């Protein structure tokens, strides 16, 4: 990446250029990324090309979009590398779908290992339950974070598992991978009927000042004035809601499931 590209990326996430590639700057950049660039899977449903690495940078910075975990983390890795960090890609798989334990696809997730002054840190800007600050890779005790409590647990086969608030979320390899190693799984995500992001299933998620905004198909959950609000979006409301809550301008609607018989309604509840 050129200096101009870095400046454009930093503008995209609302960040100042750090004076040095240290832990404080990594914490700052990771949080700014999570609060500025949404996790989103619209292109999988629309059938548009999904690229990682430089192609993901163009999408996130040039077109001001978000992406899936491969897109977000390889793009963030490019920024960190340009700023002087030593970054490796680690392959993982999900262990929980948010409701129950469920083993995800092999290589179905990616995290970044960042070396700073001889010590490794784990960073992730592409996962709903990721920590908002880097995790110390060598630490096996609890690590407090704005998004909860995390532990890194060794497995008998040499992997580690990321535990978030008592839930085993990710099993992660400890060996570095080349970006090309993730291409076959990306092809599977884009083409397989068993992929969780093809067809009508759409996700979007963004950390916002008032609370996380989340979209699953037509169902939008967000926070306003300390209240949790859930609503079902019809075709007319969908594009405006996506632009307002995730900053994404859609030029066409993805394929969406039918509206529930009751129609769109908003439900409010206490902050949780």
Explain how this protein is built.
With 272 residues, the chain is α+β, with helices and mostly antiparallel strands. The chain has helices at 3-12, 23-36, 42-46, 54-62, 69-82, 183-191, 237-246, and strands at 39-40, 86-94, 109-116, 119-123, 135-136, 143-145, 148-154, 160-164, 167-172, 203-206, 213-216, 219-224, 227-232, 266-270. The protein is 26% helix and 26% strand. An 8-stranded antiparallel β-sheet has the order 5-4-3-2-9-8-7-6, with helices on one face. The protein has a 6-stranded antiparallel β-sheet with strand order 1-10-11-12-13-14. It contains 7 helices and 14 strands.
Low-pLDDT sequence parts: 266-272
Level-2 CATH architecture of the largest domain: 2-Layer Sandwich
Helix content: 25-40%
Termini separation: 40 Å
The radius of gyration is 18 Å
- Topology, number of strands: 14
CATH class of the largest domain: Alpha Beta
- Global shape: globular
User: How many domain regions?
Assistant: 2
For the biggest sheet, the summary is: 8 strands, antiparallel
Keywords: Transferase
Family: Belongs to the arylamine N-acetyltransferase family.
Protein name: Arylamine N-acetyltransferase
InterPro entries: Arylamine_N-AcTrfase, Papain-like_cys_pep_sf
């Amino acid at each position: 990446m050129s200096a101009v590209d870095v400046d454009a990326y930093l503008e995209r996430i609302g960040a100042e250029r750090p004076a040095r590639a240290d832990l404080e700057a990594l914490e700052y950049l990771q949080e700014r990324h999570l609060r500025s660039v949404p996790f989103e899977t619209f292109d999988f449903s629309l059938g548009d090309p999904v690229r990682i690495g430089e192609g993901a940078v163009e999408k996130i910075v040039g077109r001001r979009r978000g992406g899936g975990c491969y897109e977000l983390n390889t793009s963030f890795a490019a920024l960190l590398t340009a700023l002087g960090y030593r970054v490796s890609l680690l392959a993982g798989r999900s262990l929980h779908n948010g409701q129950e334990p469920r083993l995800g696809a092999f290589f179905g997730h990616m995290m970044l290992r960042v070396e700073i002054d001889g010590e490794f840190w784990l960073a992730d800007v592409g996962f709903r339950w990721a920590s908002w600050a880097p995790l110390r890779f060598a630490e096996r005790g609890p690590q407090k974070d704005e998004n909860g409590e995390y532990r890194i647990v060794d497995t008998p086969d040499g992997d580690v598992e990321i535990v978030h608030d008592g839930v085993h979320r990710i099993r992660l390899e400890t060996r570095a991978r080349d970006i090309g190693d993730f291409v076959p799984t990306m092809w599977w995500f884009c083409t397989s009927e068993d992929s969780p992001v093809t067809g009508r299933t759409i996700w979007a998620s963004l950390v916002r000042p008032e609370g996380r905004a989340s979209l699953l198909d037509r169902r939008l959950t967000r926070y306003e004035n300390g209240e949790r609000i859930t609503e079902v979006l019809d075709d007319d409301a969908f594009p405006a809601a996506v632009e307002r809550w995730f900053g994404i301008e859609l030029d066409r609607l993805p394929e969406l499931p039918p509206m529930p018989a009751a129609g769109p309604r908003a439900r409010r509840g206490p902050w949780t």
